[in-house]
Each structure stands twice: as C-alpha cells, then as structure tokens.
Design a protein that fits this description.
By secondary structure, the chain is mainly alpha-helical. 70% of the residues lie in helices and 0% in strands.
C-alpha cells in the first residue's frame, strides 16, 4: 500500500510540503482568476467606450454632411457677392469622461479620438482665415474642411467598431460616401 494514505508514515516535513504546495496552487488559481477578471472588465469598459465614441463620431459626420448641404443650398442675398453660407463647423460633442476605460483602449485609436477635436478646431481656423483673407475660395474651403472632418470621423468610428467587434453602423443615408465624393 502507498505511504501517502498511511498517517503513521507522515512526518512534519511531508505535511509542510503538502501545505505549502496546496497554498501555492490555491494562490495561483485565485490570482490567475483575479487577473483574468480584471482584464475582461477592462476590455468590456474599453469596448463600451469605443461604442459610445463611434456613435458620437458618426453623429458628427452626419452633422458635417448637413453642413455641406446647407451651404450647397445657401441663398445668395441681393446685393451680396456670396451666398449666406454657414461658416461655423458643427460643434464637436463632448467626449465621455471615463479615465479607466480610456486607459484600457488601444493606444493608436485613443490618439485618433483625442486628436480629433483639435483637427476640428484647425479646420475651423482654416475657414476663418479663408473668410478673412481669400473670400473667393470660401465655398471650396467650407466644402473641403467639413467633408474632410466628416470622413475622418466616419473612419475613426469604423476603426473603433472593427477593433472592438461592435458591428457595422447602419445609417439611413450614406453620408460617408457623399462626403467622400465632395473631397
């Protein structure tokens, strides 16, 4: 018969080894589970933030398309050399404030999302400079800047959706293609 099942053959060293081995095994399983749970929660938070950002960016792209159509159909007032264009790009929606989820996101996508509002401001600055110094080019500048930001917003949203496996957006009107054509 095996001495493992014989209490008379046990010594303190064997009991100590068994206890330490069991403790290490238990700690490894519990620690591994905690790490797995933490990692899963971070991925879920990042995916939820990515979905929120994708929807915000898709909405922004839609507003850029509206901006383009509004300017395309702008009326030209009497005694004015230019149509009554809208010159303020759509407001960029406020980005969600979830520091933990932002930190869990893919860093390249994170950079694109955080840089996007700066690019919108740069486009607005380009429009203002054109209106001040080269008014003859303003119609083209408005179309280019609004379309470029709309296309960029769509592309970032698509990257977010594909990276986090969120499914494709199903817009009623394909504003991305329209803005692409304008560019």
């Amino acid at each position: 018969m095996n001495d493992i099942f014989n209490p008379a053959a046990w010594d303190w060293l064997s009991i100590g080894k068994a206890a330490v081995g069991a403790g290490i095994g238990t700690a490894a399983v519990q620690g591994g589970y905690a790490l797995y749970r933490d990692r899963t929660q971070k991925k879920e938070k990042a995916a939820y933030l990515a979905l929120r950002l994708a929807v915000l960016l898709e909405g922004y792209a839609s507003k850029c398309c509206d901006f383009y159509f509004d300017n395309l159909n702008a009326l030209e007032p009497r005694d004015e050399p230019y149509p009554a264009w809208r010159t303020d790009l759509p407001e960029m929606p406020e980005l969600p404030d979830d520091t933990e989820a932002w930190r869990a996101m893919d860093k390249k996508l994170l950079a694109k999302c955080l840089e996007f509002p700066n690019r919108v401001r740069a486009s607005q600055n380009a429009i203002e400079a054109c209106a001040e110094y080269t008014m003859d080019d303003l119609g083209v500048t408005l179309d280019e800047q609004a379309s470029a930001r709309g296309v960029e917003a769509c592309e970032i949203a698509a990257l977010l959706r594909s990276t986090y496996k969120l499914g494709r957006a199903e817009p009623v009107f394909d504003y991305h293609s329209r803005l692409q054509q304008v560019l």
